[in-house]
Amino acid sequence: MSLKSLSNMAAPLELYCWKGDYGLPSIDVDCLIVLAYAKFAGAPLKVHKITNPWRSPTGTLPALKTRDEGSLSQPSKIIIHLRKQMYNADYDLSAKEGADTLAFVSLLEEKLLPALVYTLWIDSKNYVDVTRCWYAENIPFPLNFLLPNRMHSQQLERLRLVRGDPVLEPGEQLEKELYRDAFECMTLLSQRLASQKFFFGDSPSSLDAYVFAHLAPLLKIKLPNGKLQQHLNSLSNLQQFCTNILTLYFPSDIQDTPGRKMHVQPDGGDFDNEPNKRRNQILSVLFAVGAMLGYAVLTGIVTIKRELPQLRNSSHDDDEGDEEDED
Fold first, then answer.
1. How many other C-beta atoms are found inside a 10 Å radius of the C-beta of residue 311?
2. Is 50 strand, coil or helix?
3. Residue 312 has pLDDT above 60, yes or no
4. 3-state secondary structure of 222
5. With bands split at pLDDT 50, 70 and 90, how would you rate the model's confidence at 162?
6. Which of 237, 293, 312, 327, by CA, is between 20 and 30 Å from 266?
7. For residue 309, what are the CA distances in angstroms to 285, 312, 313, 318, 320?
């Protein structure tokens, strides 16, 4: 085997994901899926916990930077790649357990995920007081003025796509339907887990990663409107399931104080290093000013008038007008 091949094998895969808070290794469901699965499978990842998705290889989070397949950005694709690298948390599952995994993951994505998106991103009280506030405080300036609202729109589109309704609008009826489905899903998960440590015995699998990622934010993030949290609190085995995973696999993260405000710069970027820091600060200010002016012009708050110089005879006026039209 060549030295180059040995070097490639030794180089760890790099994972970019949203940073954690509230005692969670990440505040994002998709990132939690990948982080948990990697821990369960023993994948040696170099993890970059950041607060600017534009700094990832794909412009989204999570993102896995690989040696042979470029960069991957969806949890399912990242997990498939890890399995190809022989990091397989489902290696010991039977055919029936593999089928059960697919069924329950589909159930999560169809029944629980829409309600989770709604409670974190669409419910106005939760969004304004918690979700938008967290991202606005943690995303670096000037992107913190732009990205939270953009992410809110993306999550609404995501909800519309999952529900199969392109004109879906938030409201009491939608909330009632989403929460009813989510309650049923959580109850089924509780019944399936019963008194086991993990869903298929003593070792965690990809199903455990998916369930943990969807439930842990509800367990740890305190929301003003907490209907989903109230139902989860009534299912003690699911609570213990999430707590066990946090304690066993993410012990350093559970020491964080829930809900505390965190102001950190992303790791390893231009914002952290001289001599680029001053340049980026100036560019950030210019970017923010340009964005605000552009918005003002587009919305009509500011109008731009072009005045032609007054000329002494009408013929010159006509000529000047013709030249202006040609431009």
1. 12
2. strand
3. no
4. coil
5. confident
6. 293
7. 34, 10, 12, 12, 9
Contacts of 12 (CB under 8 A, 6+ apart): 44, 45, 46
Under 8 Å between Cβ of 172 and 122? no
Scanning the structure block, which residue is given the tokens 């589909």?
106
Coarse DSSP helix, strand, coil percentages of the chain, rounded to the nearest 5 percent: 60, 5, 35
Sequence-distant (6+) residues with CB within 8 A of 47 are 14, 15, 17, 35
* Helices 29-41 and 236-249, packing angle to 10 deg: 60
- The structure tokens listed for 256 are 């964080």
Q: What is the number of H-type helices and E-type strands within the chain? A: 14, 4
- Give CA–CA dist 194/188, Å, rounded: 10
In terms of C-beta density within 10 A (0-12 exposed, 13-18 middle, 19 or more buried), how is residue 46 classed?
A: exposed
Amino acid identity, position 91: Y
Give me the amino acid identity at 259.
G
246: which 2 tokens? 């946090």
In b/e form, how buried is each residue of 140-149, taking b as 16+ CB within 10 angstroms? bebbbeebbe
Q: Please, what is the end-to-end C-alpha distance for the chain in angstroms?
A: 66
CA 256 to chain centre: 20
What's the chain's length in residues?
A: 327
**Beta-bridge partner residues of 63:** 16
What is the value of pTM for the model shown? 0.77
Residue in 246, 217, 196 with CA at minimum distance from that of residue 29: 217
Per residue in 40-80, pLDDT tens? 999 999 999 999 999 999 999 999 998 888 899 999 999 99
**Cα 124 to Cα 137: distance, rounded to the nearest angstrom:** 18
